[in-house]
Prior knowledge:
By secondary structure, the chain is α+β, with helices and mostly antiparallel strands.
Amino acid sequence: xKKLIVAAVFAAFLVIGSPIFAQDSQKDKDSEYYYKNxxxxxxYPYRNGYVVQYRRGISMDKVYLPMSWFSSSAGKGEIxxxxxxxxxxxxxxxxxxxxxxxxRLYVHHLPSHQTWGVIPQNVNLDSSFENIEDxxxxx
Length: 139
């Protein structure tokens, strides 16, 4: 009889106590990264990078992503080509401890897709790509 009571108390402790310990171990596994994701309206390739237009409520906003971010040495940008299908292009901006870390640009594989745009050759946007170190999306 004593063995049955001890076994019941031990089983109750496992059932009640294990979620408490699991919560403590989860705190150690929380990531220092978080991200913001927005659907894209247009992506404009430019000689110095990409101009990305996204919807901000009922208005539009744009961000400038320097080409240097997409080199392997900088490691601040990555272009991910979406497979054929209905997936819509998007932009994910990652932050580490509240500071900008890197960006992922999910784009359609066909340049004829409606999200790809063209900047006329006579337009000079060089100054828009200078000294960009941070990326904050507006909502």
